[in-house]
UniProtKB/TrEMBL annotation:
Coiled coil stretches, renumbered: 42-98
Taxonomy of the source species: Bacteria, Pseudomonadati, Pseudomonadota, Gammaproteobacteria, Alteromonadales
Name listed for the protein in its UniProt record: DNA repair protein
Signal peptide: 1-22
Entry-linked InterPro entries: DUF2959 (IPR021342), S2_sf_CoV (IPR043473)
Organism name: Shewanella colwelliana (Alteromonas colwelliana)
Pfam families registered for this protein in UniProt: DUF2959
Recorded superkingdom: Bacteria
The UniProt record lists the keyword Signal: yes
Amino acid sequence: MKNVLSAVVITSAMLLSGCQSAYYGAMEKVGYHKRDIMVDRVTAAKESQEEAQEQFSSALEEMQALLNHDGGDLEKAYNKAKDEYESSQEAADEVSSRIDKVEDVAEALFDEWQTEIGEISKASLRRNSETKLRETQRSYQQLVKTMRRAESKMPPILTAMKDNMLYLKHNLNAQAIGAIKGEFASLQTDISSLIKEMNKSIAESTKFIESIEGGK
């Protein structure tokens, strides 16, 4: 059974890789090269982080409104906070997906670039291309590092939000709300830290896009 499962995983990975190669090949035939796809995917990752910033801030606001609730429909306030938590989870998943796509095209782009350098016969041109490749790779590595660092800030926040939502689901009353107020300051600090890290990542994305487009 274990061998069968391993074979399925390997086959799936090969099919996925083949699909990606076919996709890049088809796009290149219509004049849309890996460099262009790279720029688009970094832009999409940047936008997903901007959206996640807004979403986590919105979730924090709704949590604060719930904790400051002083009458009226408590369940309605809870449902709004819960919806914002679920939207934050979706935003986090989107950020991770976008970063994965950036890494996928980067690997294909750099492999192609390295192969094509070997096809350049003139030494001076080959050296120049090798230098540009190394510069782009360094810039890319810094980009992914900042993206992943910002991404890593989200799971603990989502866990804390989930804990609070589940606790309140089972004990939706003023006493329960009072019990989690002490955790709110920590959540505020964590979300502020997340937003700062995402700002760094967004700035790094802009810098990378400018550098790679300048190489066209």
